[in-house]
Amino acid sequence: QEEKKQLTLKVEELERKLESTSAQNIEFLQVIAKREESIHQCQLRLEEKSHECSSLARQLEMAIEDAKRQVEQARERAVSRERAAQSKMLDLETQLSRNKTELNQLHRSKEDAERRYESRLQDLRDRLEQSESTNRSMQNYVQFLKASYDNVF
Asked: Which GO terms describe its cellular component (predicted)?
């Protein structure tokens, strides 16, 4: 009976550990969900910046066409308007360059986040596998103890 009591205590302890491991797994899944949401938000921002860059590129093309028409209309007015268009073009190119730089940074940030996510996910998978392996070992040990107990009595 004493052995049975000890075995029962061990089984209860193993069940508590299993519950604890399950709770940890749930926490890890919540962390993963948060990371996925963060990645999703980064992707949305990346798409917004891509659309903004496309819009700025179209604006730049429109400004260039406008400058060309003005040059054809009047040579005297074209000089001053060409300067204004070139200034605007320079601003747009600077803005486009900044946006491209920011887009590249977002790409790198997204890739870094994905690498960290994949690393963390693999770590969690490894831990889960280890936890499951430990759980199986404990279950096998409990089965062994049960079988031994049955053989004794």
From this structure: centriole; centrosome; microtubule; motile cilium; spindle pole
pTM for this model (two decimals): 0.35
Q: What is the DSSP string of 89-110?
A: HHHHHHHHHHHHHHHHHHHHHH
d(CA 75, CA 79): 7
Closest CA to 28 of 132, 136, 120: 120
Residues 80 and 67: their CA atoms lie apart, in Å, by 10
Cα 88 to Cα 111: distance, rounded to the nearest angstrom:
34
Whether residue 49 contacts residue 107, with contact meaning beta carbons closer than 8 Å, is answered with no
C-alpha span between 11 and 89 (Å, rounded): 75
CB 89 within 8 A of CB 64: yes
Q: Express each pLDDT in 101-135 by its tens digit.
A: 999 999 999 999 999 999 999 999 999 999 999 99
Tell me what pLDDT residue 100 has.
Answer: 97
Which pair of tokens denotes residue 69? 């028409």
